[in-house]
Amino acid sequence: MASHGFKVCVANRSPAKVEQTVARAKAEGNLPLIGSYDAKDFCSKLSKPRKIVILVQAGKPVDATIATLSAHLEPGDVVIDGGNEWFPNTLRRAEELKPKGIHFIGMGISGGEEGARNGPSLMPGGPKEAYDLIEPIITKCAAQVGAGEACTGYCGPVGSGNYVKMIHNGIEYGDMQLIGEVYDILKNIVGMGNEEIGDLFEEWNKGELESYLIEITAKVFKKKDDQTSDGYVLDKILDKTGMKGTGRWTVQEAAEQSVAAPTMAAALDARYISARKEERVAAEKILSGPSEKPVVDKAQVIKDLEAALYCCKIVSYAQGLGVIRAASDKFDWNVDLALCARMWRGGCIIRARLLKGIQEAVTHDTNLANLMVDPGFAADLNARHMAWRRIVSLGVASGISLPAMSVSLGYYDQYRRARLPPAYLVQAQRDFFGGHTYQRVDKEGTFHTLWDDAHHDIGDLSGRVAGEV
After folding, report:
1. Partner of 225 at 20 to 30 A CA spacing, among 26, 85, 90, 351?
2. Catalytic positions, written as ranges
3. CA angle 278, 281, 283 (to 5 degrees)
4. SS3 237
């Protein structure tokens, strides 16, 4: 903010961190930034209406910080939580501050260290009048992807910004897992080394797969070990993936909204399995895989992988946007999916060339049922799905798990079929053991069958579907 000409006051529990920030601002061009060491002094230094961004760990630290600050704030002031927060907490805090006349905005921020200085993606949700107060600041500070296209905008009422950021993180989980599965094939089936894989990712980053994650992963492959000067850092890292919770929230929310999000769920499950390192070490000595590996054409596999990864990314974004739309309808947020795509095009972790096409697709058809049926993306999927199938089949035949890629293909195949035999069979089973009834394809109404001699007439069927979600 200071580097864009806005006067900033910073505060922190640690005086040393305040002093360090003030000194850095001075060293980087005498930026308009001052420090403060207690809440009362901090609030007194801000112009009114005050606009305060909180960047602390989600949960109780946010509540404690708000409690400390609110004692020195006035009606009309704006408090913005910039952390990865569970959106119900944001709704609660907004209600708690409302009697005091203090506006509360939950603003998702993505971009990491680079975005913090060069322009992040900012996803605010809160009262429109409060957003209008901060709009000139965040529009100028956010990443820019074109003339008048800042990677920020008004997501909607309070809670919507956190929700959009949560889905962003869920898509991020899926993207990272998909890239990891591509790496597994390149390393363990094709037999490529780190430098060669890094070169391939650099080449992919010049085409339709161009993205921040492809870009940084190319660098990860080539980074030599700085601890032992022997080999590469990547090969020394323990295979246990950490997480902060936003991926779990995304999968929970997808279930709450009855929207399928298998790519993100598979990525989350993969992290759970990775955490069971000791169990996996023991299982490797007990469980077996294929004794013979398929003979592969290296060039063909690489070409197929590029196509398969592109298809999976389309499917992953389709799922994420579907969850946002369902929640927006449920909570009456009116979230603009084209805005989501624009906000994600720059500054953030999932920024990718693909998002420009997504933005155009949902702008052209605001009622698009699913990203996969957009004419442009449908053509891409139709042209590439056989390559996708070859990769999934190769993983199965080789004993290499491709959870995210496999379920992405399953999602595609389920969605493109007008009639699903497993679905009507399961409904028949439900009616058999629980009298849950069913609908028919040849006539209107609700039906129940007396499947064998043990079944009896259950009378009025209208109440049998109560509780369905």
Report:
1. 351
2. 165, 172
3. 110
4. coil
